[in-house]
Amino acid sequence: MKFNEEQLTEFKRLVARYPEGKQKSALLPVLHLAQESFGNWLSEETLDYVAELLQLKPIEVYEVATFYSMYNLKPVGRYLFEVCQTGPCMLRGSEDIIKYIGDTLGIKPGETSADGLFTLKTTECLGACGYAPMMQMGKHYREHLTKEKVDTIINECRKNAAVNN
Amino acid sequence: MGVKLLLEKAHVEGIRSYEVYRREGGYRSVEKALKTMSTDAIVDEVKKSGLRGRGGAGFPAGMKWSFIAKPEGVPRHLVCNADESEPGTFKDRYLMEFIPHLLIEGLIVSSYALGSHDTYIYIRGEYAWIVDILENAINEAKANGWLGKNILGTGFDCEIHVQRGAGAYICGEETALIESLEGKRGNPRLKPPFPAIKGLWERPTVVNNVETLASVVPIINLGGEEYAKIGVGKSTGTKLISACGNINKPGVYEIDMTISVEEFIYSDEYCGGIANGKRLKACIPGGSSVPILPANLLLKTAKGETRYMNYESLSDGGFATGSMMGSGGFIVLDEDQCVVKNTYTLARFYRHESCGQCSPCREGTGWMEKLLLRLENGQGKISDIDLLWDIQRKIEGNTICPLGDAAAWPVAAAIRHFRDEFEWHVTHAEEAQKRNYGLAHYAEPIHVPVTV
Questions:
Q1: pLDDT means over runs of 10, chain B (452 residues)
Q2: Interchain CB distance below 8 Å, A130 and B252
Q3: How many CB pairs below 8 Å do chains A and B form together?
Q4: Host domain of residue A127
């Protein structure tokens, strides 16, 4: 496992933002890059590779990777639904949405569907309280969720997966 | 219509692009500051403006700037806190998403004032698409000579870098943010030393919220004294409020701080009243950590005076009968909502986000969450309510950073004002599973909405 040319260029751009000798500062962004590059999760092998690239001890990378909630330390489905469940979203019905997604996909929060396509997670506040209920899907938010909207999103994902397989 | 200083142009078509932003008068403050003002004069204007930190603590921004140490030969840094994570708060996101150049402009002037040649925006990792918007704005600013070497021929060099977090509320605390920016776990540091003396890489550092730094633009354009004339008392200028919960028009509103809470909730210019024709039960006016208030205490102070949307009025009565302006995350609960359940979700949030350094917070937040879940599920005892009260008291003030307080306050306020609702969950356990407590006497006096 290694970054390709393009990923290495991005790696260098990230490290160049910090003063000499402070390359550890690039750790969070480099972990994001590694996660995007290697299947949307961080294996031990990936973490060791990041440590080597940044000239850090592996433990320095492990302790960071386990602290922040956006790093997936287990494989996840191709589409990761992270639904907010904190107060403001709860007030606007996030529980029903979480249950509906779970029932539709036949999984509980934290699980991945048998076909490997979907993982459902609950998250805490994502800063979209005024557009609740909502979830994060990859780089973007899906807001003002309704059951109909959830159906549309799931169908979109299925279609997309069928085309790109 | 109140005065708008930040979002006035946010809906001009194409304002996200440099050309439109500049055509609408953007970057004037950089010209004025860099060409005609000394760095001390800029700090003075910010002091005169009375601007208070918009992240939640409300500390005077100019004073914070004046604390920065200037040891010979040591670089200084400005860090913009865009780690907006307090439940109910989504105002910085709005500003960065719709009018990114305003933040960049504020950052250039502030970097100049503080002598920061490498300025960092630390943005919460989930706002991934906004990173692209900001980097695009930075590149445009640079291409037009507002960033880089020798800006406007003044000899001032400045670069702005955007750093993504990775999902940790605690990184909104400034020393945790600095740790995170150094590539570590977000564990807050013991203070002193304060960041102004030893911050990022042990260098003097100022950390300010997005809205605070954007507000520097109108302060420089208008002058500190003119800016201070907007608002009332120590609540100067305008404030972004992100309104959410059970209202007709959730969203981000810029207010001048002279309007009443009642007008803010019921006027069509702002929240547009309570959704689905229901009545107001309670509100958390400044982000999830500030005390929740029942309707009667929200609209009027304990003395029976009108409560206004500003720092002083929202905190009138202290924690006994008042709340706080906080981050401006305005969360409204209608008559059907359950205070116990809402408090439970907040307790769960703080347990999830506790960094685990201090035992009162690490253990206490989990304990409160379990007790609240038990009460919510109708399995609680009356003594659990007293136990909750006891735990929150032992967290508050006993932790390195304010996350402990932030976790304790919502629980304390919920019990203080809604104790009967907690008790009802114990005494009417079965009924509590079927329906919510609903309205209580404290929400009764609400009358016809004001017309504006």
A1: 90 97 98 97 97 93 96 97 97 98 98 98 98 98 98 97 97 98 98 97 98 98 97 93 98 96 96 94 97 95 95 95 96 95 98 97 98 96 98 97 97 95 94 80 50 46
A2: yes
A3: 147
A4: 79-163
Closest-CA residue of chain B to A22:
B182
CATH of domain B339-441: 1.20.1440.230
Which residue from A28, A88, A128 is facing B164, i.e. has the nearest CB?
A28
Q: What is the pLDDT of residue B449?
A: 46
Please, what CATH class does the domain formed by B241-336 belong to?
alpha beta
Q: Check CB contact of A88 with chain B, cutoff 8 Å.
A: yes
Contact A131 B124 (CB under 8 A): no
In B268-356 the beta strands, taken as DSSP E runs, fall at 280-284, 293-294, 329-334
What token pair was written down for B210? 């997005």
DSSP one-letter code for B147? S
Q: Which of B128, B168, B348 sits opposite A68 (nearest CB)?
A: B168
d(CA B73, CA A165): 57
Measured between alpha carbons, how far is B15 from A139 in angstroms, rounded to an integer?
23
Supply the DSSP string of chain A, one letter for each residue.
----HHHHHHHHHHHTTS-TT-GGGGHHHHHHHHHHHTTTS--HHHHHHHHHHHT--HHHHHHHHTTSTTS-SS---SEEEEEE-SHHHHHTTHHHHHHHHHHHHT--TT-B-TTS-EEEEEES--S-GGG-S-EEETTEEE-S--HHHHHHHHHHHHHHHHHT-
Which residue is associated with the tokens 């939640």?
A: B56
The distance of B376 to chain A (nearest Cα, Å) reads: 14
Determine the Cα–Cα distance for residues B123 and B136; give it in Å rounded to an integer: 15
Which residues of chain A neighbour B84 with C-beta distances below 8 Å? 127
Interface contact A95, partner B, CB < 8 A: no
Residues of chain B with CATH 1.20.1440.230: 339-441
Chain A contact set for B167 (CB, 8 A): 68-71, 123
Give the closest of A67, A92, A140 to B168, CB-based.
A67
Segment A45-80, tens digit of pLDDT: 999 999 999 999 999 999 999 999 999 999 999 999
Give the CA-trace dihedral at A34, A36, A39, A43, to 10 degrees: 30
**Phi, psi for B243 (deg, rounded to 5):** -100, 135
CATH number at residue A103: 3.40.30.10
Domain count, chain A: 2
Taking residue A148's Cβ as centre, other Cβ atoms within 10 Å add up to 8
Is residue A71 in a domain? no
> Residue A20 domain-assigned?
yes
Which of B91, B177, B184 best tests the A interface by mutation, with the highest count of A CBs <10 A? Answer: B184
Using DSSP, state whether B74 is helix, strand or coil: coil
Q: Residue B356: closest CA among chain A residues belongs to which residue?
A: A67
Q: pLDDT, tens digit, for every residue of A98-157?
A: 999 999 999 999 999 999 999 999 999 999 999 999 999 999 999 999 999 999 999 999
Give the homologous superfamily in CATH for domain B18-229.
Answer: NADH-ubiquinone oxidoreductase 51kDa subunit (3.40.50.11540)
Helices B210-222, B28-36: inter-axial angle, 10-degree rounding = 70
pTM: 0.96
